[in-house]
Amino acid sequence: MRVQFLGCGDAFGSGGRFNTCFHVSTASTAFLVDCGASSMIAIRRFGVDPNAIATIFITHLHGDHFGGLPFFILDAQLASRRRVPLTIAGPPGLRQRLADAMEVLFPGSSTIERRFAVEIVEYESPTPFLLNGVTVTPFPVKHPCGAPPFALRLESGGKSLAYTGDTEWTPTLVPAAREVDLFIAEAYFLTPKAKFHLDWATLSQHLDEIRPRRLILTHMSPEMLAAPPAGIATAEDGMVVEV
Question: Which CATH architecture has domain 2-242?
């Protein structure tokens, strides 16, 4: 499993980073985890072929995590000339929120006839299911966004990846990431400062329960970017990790 951080920033572009978007490829498939508003720019910047992406997994319906979908779909139709199906999986409400976003940004784009199929799959937490060669288990978390938010555990090719999405600490993060090969965790603050976001001090108290084989922090505030915890891996845009 190869993971590239196409974007690891917050909603505000702190540190000049792109919105959240991780590109994951295995021997059998390629997929995105989240697709924030700047993701098409990042896809072009880092030379990723969007037509090779079979599935996009969305954690929650905030613009810095799903706002790139209208651009991705429009690019597929008009620029990348996609012909293969695209599956987008996300929280309940994704189908309507995506259609609404497309109509706001590009009126008429949600209903045009496309040269490729778009399948929308909405999670039924916390039931694991197989989608395009990836076993997905969504875990409910705490982050108000007008629809249920999730942490995701994704398994493919004998490797496992977990991502917190945006959330305050919640016990569901333990089974979501327990003994996972790669745990990508939000660490917006060093210490608790705001509800609905995870901080390093709280997360670190639970790592003995989670026991990830590898941990990388992401979605960091300017404070965290300026002084990240010593000895802990942190994401950078473009960074590649072999799992």
Answer: 4-Layer Sandwich (3.60)
